[in-house]
Amino acid sequence: MKKNMGMTDRVIRTLLAIGAITLYATGVVTGTPGIVLIVASGIFLLTSLVSFCPLYTLVGISTCKRN
Question: Transmembrane stretches, by residue range (predicted)?
């Protein structure tokens, strides 16, 4: 897998995931929307850790700096 996510993209995804997890943990979002939010947060965290987004590959986007 070739990296296709830049540092800014990774930080934004991580912050969004932390925010969503916080909303679920505090009970602001519950039920089915809460579960969907947790799954999306997991995907955001995973893609941030590996610096690769499969959807970016399909669309042809890369937020990495070119060398």
Answer: 12-29, 35-59
